[in-house]
Amino acid sequence: MMYPYMTLNDNTEITHSEMKQDGRVKVYIETPDEKVCFRHAVCWLPEYKWEDIYAYSNADIERFQEIIESSAHLIMEFSKWKSRGKCDENMDYKKRQMLFVP
Predict the structure, then answer these.
(1) Which of 6, 13, 28, 85 is the least crowded, having the fewest Cβ atoms under 10 Å away?
(2) Sheet holding 49-54, edge to edge
(3) 0.85 cut: is pTM over it?
């Protein structure tokens, strides 16, 4: 199962799986596109292994890499809670807020 993590300004959705038995987490990125329907890519954490990249440029993947690297610790933590089958209100994605720190 995939869980919502973040929506970017261009309607790109970033979702993640629960933590797998081997400690890996699948991060799936998809962007609506008029020409190809959806652009998409998969990044596996913690090794940042990219696969199944469709219709994204190298610059797009570099940008997504930066986003994922900056919050991988959160994705990994959220995925642990999902794999345990429990989630408290602090881990509920609907209540997560992005904070700006100057």
Answers:
(1) 85
(2) 2-7, 13-17, 25-33, 37-45, 49-54
(3) no
